[in-house]
Amino acid sequence: MPKEEKGGGILTLVASPIGNDLDLSPRARAAIEGADLIAAEDTRRFLALCSREGLSPKGRIVSYYDQVEKGKAGKIVDEVLSGARAVLISDAGTPVINDPGYVVVNEAARRGARVTSCPGPCAAVTALILSGFRADRFCYEGFVPRKEGERKREFERLRSEERTSIFYESARRLEGSLRDMEQALGPERRICIARELTKEHEEVLRVTLGEALGLKGIMGEVALVVEGCPPKKGEAADFVEEAERMAREGARLKDAVKEIARREGVSPHELYEKVQESRRGK
Hints:
Layout: E1 10-14, H1 26-34, E2 37-40, H2 43-53, E3 60-63, H3 69-81, E4 85-89, H4 102-111, E5 115-118, H5 123-131, E6 138-143, H6 148-157, E7 164-170, H7 174-185, E8 190-195, E9 203-208, H8 209-212, E10 221-226, H9 240-248, H10 253-264, H11 268-280
Parallel strand pairs: 1-4, 1-5, 2-3, 2-4, 6-7
Antiparallel strand pairs: 7-10, 8-9, 8-10
Helix pairs in contact: 3-4, 6-7, 9-10, 9-11, 10-11
């Protein structure tokens, strides 16, 4: 059980604009100007934001990025427990979501310090609600793995994932990621490519993975929203006879299996193996 909250201090996680400074809320402004301590992912960017928006922070400003988080989290919590009003703000978006914050929030919870959030911009959620895909169940996967093998394994795992999935990716690696995703999920799976969200050149592309492979010139910061696999209508073994019928009618077995798997939401590998097992048993 967490210890009882101590002192009158509080740690506020402040979401910052991801491209449009007008998204900085009045509450965020008040938290920044009223803080005794401000932990900023990049102090220069934070001060630039303050300059653009006419903010006058009076508290002490310290840098708080991934590499120093473990060393500074405890000290921030010490100050909160002593009564300080502390703010944690990332470069862009919501703290903790692929940004610093987890360690200090965990430490504050463990030691009974008060923590609250000043909600605001988040690229993952913004891309999700613009995608047109189901958002009642979704999973945020962070940045696409850089190593090819890890990336392919990650996308293979999505074959049977029914929830909408969200990734971040850099524009320079996007082509390779889309190619691996198409190989794993098939050309008909739908994807939303959202770039430069809330900025002047915002663009939201809703295409199939097959269509995505032909896109050129995508630049800027990219969020990928992948439609979930259709709910299974049966098990792979239920479609062996249909695959065999399509093969007898002239389709390549692998093409027949791929088509049925895409439509029914079953594993193509499992269905192919079931067909082979059936053939061996005859």
